[in-house]
Amino acid sequence: MTTPVSHDHALPLLPGRLGDPERVLKTDPRTDSRLVAACAPYGLAEALPPVPVNADSPLQDKLDFSAANEAGMAKVFAALFEDLPEIQNVERRTEVIKGVDGNDLNLYIHTPQNVSGSLPCLYHMHGGGMVILTADDPTYRRWRDELAAAGMIAVGVEFRNGAGKLGNHPFPAGLNDCTSGLQWTFDHKASLGISKIIVSGESGGGNLTLATCLQAKQDRRLEHIDGVYASCPYIYGGWARPSRELRSLFENDNYLISCSQMEVLASVYDPEGINAKNPLCWPYWATGDDLQGLPPHVISVNELDPLRDEGLKYYQMLMSAGVPVYSRTVNGTCHAADVLFRKAIPNVYAATLRDIKGFADSL
């Protein structure tokens, strides 16, 4: 048998950086060209600059890197949402509650106007590796507005971060805040006009989404959650020494995000590394017993995301545990693109919103 030979005019035998170690987002033939155009002004379609720290660096150096990373990402994400027309007929308010640790906790509540009867609630946890960014960023204000316009009540929880403006609060501070906000939302279902609660988030918010559900099971409070929708979940934790089993960590490394960046953020979230296999910190390590009896899940991943395969692995674990679950892969897109790139790929953004609303309606 002869071995196939790759030609310059053909796709590589293996996808992404597995087929060509020099490949970047803009040169990967799978990438939606609209994403390349949107990323280009910020250098995000090219190879990312080297990360100046690693998991073994002094904590203060990692905190400084995280703060700078947050500032840079927040600036880019704000620009990506500039000049969009405001969504009308949505009422917005902020509820300040006490978290389980005695801290003040903001819940951002977006409700569609002129709607009668109860509605499903999307309880949202934002991305940023549990370490950076905020629920009050333009990306997530817009996401809640879009969810409300689609006929849902959206509640965004402003959990404490491991670093940045809302840091420095390592695990389990952020998870505690998410469970506190969920308890308040559940307790106020009637006054808020909520019919059911779906917990959801992307990236680090996908981690907290899955961990909040696992925590609810441990606390015997699964009645708080009717469904779980996790997008591009950041759940492995072992990016400093990635497993070959998770091929996408090599195939798509340095496409918008990198293993070296995630390694640092993970070490800020759990500075002592004592929770490396704790599923409440890193849900990838959940057992079948942890997963049995959970409510219906959706695991949504992005084709060109380093995190793709850890999300798909979790989907397979849920299936094996007998949890009602389906998964979707958003082809042609990098990490969280169907949430972050509203202007560049509006049809893809809208498709994810429809899928979330359809899942909520199906419960």
Main sheet properties: 8 strands, mixed
Find the structural class using helix and strand composition: alpha/beta
Number of strands: 8
Helical proportion, percent range: 25-40%
List its traits:
15% strand, single chain, 13 helices, 363 residues, eight-stranded mixed β-sheet, alpha/beta, disordered N terminus
Explained architecture:
This protein has 363 residues and is of the alpha/beta class. Helix content is 36%, strand content 15%. It has helices at 16-19, 33-39, 59-80, 138-149, 173-187, 189-192, 204-218, 248-251, 259-269, 288-291, 308-320, 337-340, 346-362, and strands spanning 90-98, 104-112, 119-125, 153-157, 194-202, 227-231, 297-302, 325-330. The protein has an eight-stranded mixed beta sheet, with helices on both faces. β3, α4 and β4 (153-157) form a beta-alpha-beta unit. α3 packs across α9 and α5 (173-187) packs across α7. It starts with 15 loop residues before the first helix and ends with a helix.
Strand-helix topology:
Layout: H1 16-19, H2 33-39, H3 59-80, E1 90-98, E2 104-112, E3 119-125, H4 138-149, E4 153-157, H5 173-187, H6 189-192, E5 194-202, H7 204-218, E6 227-231, H8 248-251, H9 259-269, H10 288-291, E7 297-302, H11 308-320, E8 325-330, H12 337-340, H13 346-362
Briefly summarize what is shown.
The chain is α/β, with parallel strands linked by helices. It is built from 13 helices and 8 strands.
